[in-house]
Design brief:
This protein has 352 residues and is of the alpha/beta class. The protein contains 12 helices and 14 strands. It is globular, with a radius of gyration of 20 Å.
Length: 352
Amino acid sequence: MSYNIAVIKGDGIGPEVAGQALRVLDAAGAKYGHTFCYTEVLMGGCAIDQTGAPLPDETVRVCKASDAVLLGAVGGPKWDSLPGGSRPEKGLLGIRAALGLYANLRPAVLHGALADACPLKPEISGGGFDMLFVRELSGGIYFGERGRANDSAFDTEIYSVREIERVGRAAFELALKRRKRLCSVDKANVLESSRLWREVMRGLSQHYPDVEYRDMLVDNAAMQLIRDPRQFDVIVTSNMFGDILTDEAGMLTGSIGMLPSASLGDGKPGLYEPVHGSAPDIAGLDRANPIASILSAAMLLRLSLGLEPEAAAVENAVLKTLADGFRTPDLHSPGCTPVGTSQMGAEIAARV
């Protein structure tokens, strides 16, 4: 089979980690008899430099015509002085909106081989945990009205029943396929948008009697992730809260360089990217961890292309590489073999 994949390498370490994800995809293709046809397009700071816009129309066209989209990372201090509407991150928000993506899936898993990289005490981490965050992606404060007036600035948090319902259903359905526990995170004691969020989520819970459901305030959730991460299975939350909590969860897995993500809508294509940013301070130094990007490629295989054995082969190759002691600088510990971005990708590809 042949599949068309749009590739947005982006800025900073984006091209490096995305390149290793493509290497591993090609290894999976060679093993299972698939051809992946890549079309590279621009978004973010590099797009601003070359076209003057963070999200060129051509990029949107190519992405819509593809089976899936693989993204590296965008942004960096080079473009921080630009107005908000012209910054690289505007491209990321734009492509999510253009593709109709509203559910961002972010698994946070502490693997046994990385137990010593977790900052929590072993008696708390328990040697491993497995959480799945479902972050609402197309609404909330990132998309509400914003502006400045005199010496003030404002950003508006708005959610509709429809927006909450569709991401809520996605979270409940995912919980049914896992350990049947769902925690909805909000700030209903303060925010009216969160009170609506809680009302809608509780209403949905009546349609999923097999799922154990609970609400949790976001400040408590941040604390509970540190106190006992094993209590969580699936966590569903708003755009901004999900952005923050998943970075916290990323560090609990040993490094944010371990967290992949999938952004999905009602159809195709999905957008797949590591949770981490562009890390311009280490760009070009062969120091970035490509595992999050590689695991994002595994999610692409499973969720957009329906290639379950291929996805499992990539994930197992990652686990085998870690078990064999290979570590990028963010994960390195005594007794392990230090490797750079390229060698880590090569080791994983070889184990596919």
